[in-house]
């Protein structure tokens, strides 16, 4: 006749407790969770509820189960953003312009922060990538290799922001981007005039960062992003014809 | 003696199929899912596996179950980003500077896009909020009311970007922000000199957007963000003393 007022299920309460432990810093990346039996004893719930909770956290990319070893907090938790963001995108009839806006936002903020926070070691690594790019475009023009170096450059850049929130969103937006226009990057790089322009832009971005000039780094990245946007627009116009 | 090579569990495959339907656009926001029985028949898996999958999707904030009505695709799916982002933040020893960097990034990109995409109706609504703010600060100085108007202004602004990715990340970063420094917004607004400066800045941001000037909107938002950053820095210095 009477129903329980709390509608929260037991496994949901278990999930909340584990998330809470992460949020207050008790559980850290790579940490091993107590065994299912121990969790069940401590929280005074059935092992079935513990297993259900772990299953959800595993699917969310928060916990990983290693056979014979137990359950661990994921080290690559940024993967847990990809699916929700992809679904938000689709459920709201997202366009490639939306993804590009997100990408521009991340890249522009990244270079500004990188110009402030970067170490000499960071700059050396970034320069090495630009040098490789130059060599590659002059010599072999191996498209796949240039794509790889391009990705390496932008990934290094975002790591120089030393902000995991931005890094995680970058990884997520890259996935979204790739899924959206699969080989666009290669097509853009294939057009020879853009290829050299791209290398020059990367060089200019590196220079501004190594001179610790956030405004200049922003402007150079903006120019780079404008080229990319233009290429996408042209590509989409062609496809619609 | 021999183990199955595929390690993917049945409920995980069910989740993948539902996510795939969202990603290819078959399932949209608010859509009702087929009944558990129908899903189980169509996918040829047990109802237990269907229930497990739905449970995970529910916890992730993708599906909502309405008693007596069935299962639906969530309309407020952006909630599904909050927990992963909060956990990424904590697991990487995030600082309030990291959250502020994310926030600045979202606000700055938002005003640039808003200045391009905003309609006359958008601008009227934004102006109404600024006018209310002015009135409130001149008359009553009700802190809670100013906080509410401030939030309303920034929320309206982000909706003018007409980019759900950015909107969702904004909602997510706001939650992260609030959890981090709970009553900072009120403290900042409480300092009377900042209060008037803030209203003037909001007005200037509105003006630049209504004139369709993205660079000016960016600069005004940058000034606004610099004030906020300074207030946080002062607050944190005080707290550390």
UniProtKB/TrEMBL annotation, chains A, B:
UniProt source species: Romboutsia lituseburensis DSM 797
Tell me which Pfam families the record gives.
Answer: FCD (PF07729), GntR (PF00392)
In this entry, which stretches build a coiled coil?
116-143
Q: What name does the UniProt record give this protein?
A: Transcriptional regulator, GntR family
Q: Where is the HTH gntR-type domain?
A: 8-76
Question: What are the entry keywords?
Answer: Coiled coil, DNA-binding, Transcription, Transcription regulation
GO terms for molecular function, please? Answer: DNA binding; DNA-binding transcription factor activity
Stored PROSITE patterns: HTH_GNTR
Does this UniProt record's set of keywords contain Transcription? yes
